[in-house]
Design brief:
Number of strands: 39
Largest sheet: 7 strands, parallel
Number of helices: 14
Number of domains: 4
CATH architecture of the largest domain: 3-Layer(aba) Sandwich
Radius of gyration: 28 Å
CATH superfamily of the largest domain: Peptidase S8/S53 domain
Helix content: 10-25%
Structural class: alpha+beta
Oligomer: single chain
Shape: globular
Length: 749
């Protein structure tokens, strides 16, 4: 077996060449005067409405597109007289066409009335030009021959670029509207309203809704009673961006069956790494209680019953001592200490209360880098927005440099829906979300499914969480001082993954980006098929199968930051044999982007367009990468693919990029170009101009498999050294000893 290699070298970077974007139409397309006329009529009605309703100090306008659009194809001129249209976006969602054949983008903007008036004037002038100069229809070819001086129409000067941009806007936009949300509300809700120019409390008061500050988060997220929600819908439904039920009934596992008395012998804790657990309360009478520092976070008025301790205690038992009762799942990770925060009862939890607690918990426990959250809602996630708790977890992971492991939630026993969507907070994109499989490596009977926001892969991975009626098919846990129990659920798959992440981060010294990438890479393996039920696959049981490889494989990782638009290195010396590279290759990249829940389906702020493959020169002598997945979406001169295809094929805007070749008997060795170098190239793209991707850390794990089962590990090691790479074989035993030495208490005489 070969140890995983750590490679270090400063990446190169360069800024993006400034450009003005295309002002043409897609080849073969046109825009009719009739379509422009319909678009012009819609802002007339919208303007009239907002002239009569002045409570928000402006106007909310929804732009309905004809498809899922890239940032470059969104409106550039309309609704952008004062500010760029990009700056006025307050939310984004998907909707289906009437025949449900495809999904389309809908963006909601907050603009001044003057911007609507200017858009009306522009549309009127452009409509007249299309009818009089282009016989009622302007084509893509016509767009290349617009007069440089533009036109003067009824006293309005329309310059060439303004005309072209209005035409492009009209091509991609289906209609303008004022969207309203209505739901039957029977419970307290967490409501997100669109950000306007008016203070939230003052705006709500004008609607007859008076609330205190403790029911407001970030000025736009509110906790409302059913009566208050009803009033908001009646008087200003246009304000509602998203709404979810506040009280979440927990997606609990089944009760389980007793396993008898457990061996109570466990050594006292020393300086083992600490994993944070947020769950139901912990039972301090269990045999391993010395390993757990428990904190009760429930309101003192809430009565805690004995059954409320079962779930949380069981989860922590796996983290501390899971392999003892489950020898078939011995992972080689040892024991971990736990700092346990009880925030829920068996019945459920208030999402709003948890929102208020989370940052305080993390801020006061900065020594913890790995957290387990096995609480999940029975309710399904929404197609168009991230749940409030998941969004807060994404923000906190970004801010505090931590990682959460979250259970994928279980399908309730009374649910007849076979493809029930996962529940909050398993829609957290930065977290590692874990689903369950049975001992036969098949999805557990209670499995719920992704994706999140229609495109993002969730769950991330799967693990053994128990299934079936026999005790041998379940997970052995400790719930109280009476002994052990056999249970099943995603709640008991997640802590096994938390153990592995903690080992990689604390013991092996990896950052969270590399640790997450390594888990996903090991789960996906070769010929991996990504599933809405099992994610990238099942994580190997033993840690050595993650940090070590067979003799015919080489696994290494690199990490860096995206300081400019392009971050790259073209000097990876992959061994060459007789002018060819005899390797299959796969690579996984992960990063933790800033996210914005207010943007709905456009949730992640930063995209890393990732390429990995052989370095060559194109016909113009420019250095390029022959990507192993043939990713060409950012190449000069390449016809841009549709946004939906880019998201599906190349995971555009996703924070996990997995590239892999399929192992096949028909595969052939690759030609080596020049010196036989391979390269990594990351192009960082932003949704806004706020530069959220600057200084963002990424982790990359690469696995190479020799096609003829030859051992080329030493060859690669030496080649990397000779080409300026720092190379280190990461040895588990050595790192364990180093960690133990670092954590020793020093006693001064």
């Amino acid at each position: 077996m070969h140890n995983i290699l750590r490679l270090k070298k400063a990446f190169q970077s360069k800024k993006n060449s400034p450009g003005f974007g295309t002002l043409s139409l897609p080849v073969g397309s046109n825009v009719s005067g009739n379509h422009i006329h319909r678009l012009r009529e819609q802002p007339d009605a919208i303007l009239a409405y907002w002239q009569g309703d002045t409570r928000i100090g402006g106007a909310l306008v929804s732009v309905h597109y004809r498809s899922i659009v890239a940032k470059s194809n969104r409106i550039q001129k309309l609704l952008g007289n004062i500010h760029s249209p990009e700056e006025s976006v307050r939310g984004a969602r998907f909707e289906y066409t009437e025949d449900r054949s495809k999904r389309c983008h809908v963006f909601t903007h907050f603009v001044a009335l003057e911007e609507i008036e200017e858009s009306i004037r522009l549309l009127e002038a452009v409509e007249e030009i299309v009818w009089t100069r282009y016989r009622g229809s302007i084509t893509d070819q016509d767009m290349g021959h617009v007069p440089e001086h533009g036109w003067s129409i009824r006293g309005t000067k329309i310059y060439k670029t303004s005309f072209q941009r209005v035409i492009r806007d009209a091509y991609y936009v289906e209609r303008f509207d004022i969207d309203r949300q209505r739901k039957d509300i029977h419970e307290a809700s967490i409501v997100t309203i669109y950000r306007t120019n008016v203070d939230t409390k003052k705006l709500l008061s004008s609607l007859g809704i008076d609330i205190y500050d403790d029911r407001i988060v970030n000025q736009t997220m509110l906790r409302l009673t059913p009566a208050e929600m009803q009033r908001l819908q009646e008087r200003a439904s246009y304000l509602i961006s998203m709404s979810v039920t506040d009280f979440n009934k927990i997606s609990l596992d089944d009760i389980g069956v007793p396993a008898g008395v457990v061996d109570r012998l466990v050594p006292p804790p020393q300086n083992e790494p600490i994993i944070g657990v947020i769950d139901t309360p912990f039972d301090d009478t269990v045999y391993f209680h010395e390993w757990v520092d428990s904190r009760l976070m429930l309101d003192p008025d809430i009565v805690v019953h004995p059954e409320d301790y079962i779930h949380g205690t069981a989860v922590s038992s796996i983290i501390v001592d899971g392999p003892k009762g489950n020898p078939s799942l011995e992972d080689g990770c040892g024991r971990f200490r736990v700092r346990h925060f009880g925030v829920a009862t068996k019945q459920g939890f208030s999402a709003f209360t948890l929102l208020k607690q989370l940052e305080g918990i993390l801020a006061e426990n900065t020594d913890i880098r790995v957290w387990n959250l096995s609480l999940g809602s029975n309710l399904e996630i929404d197609d168009n927005f991230i749940s409030p708790v998941a969004a807060e977890l994404d923000r906190l992971q970004n801010q505090y440099d931590v990682i959460f492991v979250i259970a994928g939630t279980n399908r309730p026993a009374d649910s007849e829906k076979a493809d029930m969507r996962i529940g909050s907070p398993a829609d957290s994109l930065n977290a590692v979300v874990v689903n369950s499989v049975n001992k036969d490596k098949e999805p557990a009977s209670y499995t719920r499914v992704g994706p999140v926001l229609s495109f993002f892969h969730k769950p991330d991975v799967s693990y053994y969480g128990g299934d079936g009626s026999r005790s041998s098919d379940r997970i052995c846990v400790c719930c109280d001082n009476m002994g052990a129990m056999y249970k099943a659920g995603t709640s008991f798959a997640a802590p096994w993954i938390a153990r592995k992440l903690a080992y990689l981060i604390y013991i092996m010294g990896m950052n969270r980006e590399v640790a997450k990438a390594l888990l996903i890479d090991s789960a996906a393996g070769w010929n991996g098929t990504i599933s809405d039920r099992t994610g990238f696959g099942i994580v190997p049981i033993h840690i050595r199968d993650i940090i070590q490889t067979k003799e015919d494989e080489i696994r290494f990782f690199v990490t860096g930051t995206t300081d400019e638009y392009e971050t790259y290195d073209y000097s990876l010396p992959i061994p060459v044999v007789k002018g060819k590279h005899p390797f299959f290759a796969r690579a996984t990249l992960t990063y933790f982007p800033s996210c914005n829940r207010d943007q709905g389906v456009d949730y992640t702020c930063t995209e890393m367009d990732f390429k990995f493959g052989r370095v060559r020169k194109d016909q113009d002598g420019k250095i390029v990468i022959s990507d192993i997945k043939n990713n060409r979406q950012a190449e000069d001169g390449f016809v841009t693919i549709h946004e939906q295809e880019a998201r599906s094929m190349y995971r555009k805007w996703d924070n996990v990029k997995y590239l892999s070749e399929r192992i096949s008997a028909r595969s052939r060795e690759r030609k080596a170009y020049g010196a036989g170098m391979w390269g990594i190239d990351i192009k960082t793209k932003e949704r806004t101009n706020m530069r959220k991707g600057a200084g963002l850390t990424f982790g990359i794990v690469v696995t190479l498999k020799e096609m003829h089962q030859m051992d080329r590990y030493d060859d690669f090691f030496k080649l990397c050294q000779s080409h300026g790479w720092f190379v280190q074989a990461v040895d588990a035993q050595v790192n364990t000893e180093i960690y133990a030495k670092q954590e020793e208490e020093i006693h001064l005489e």
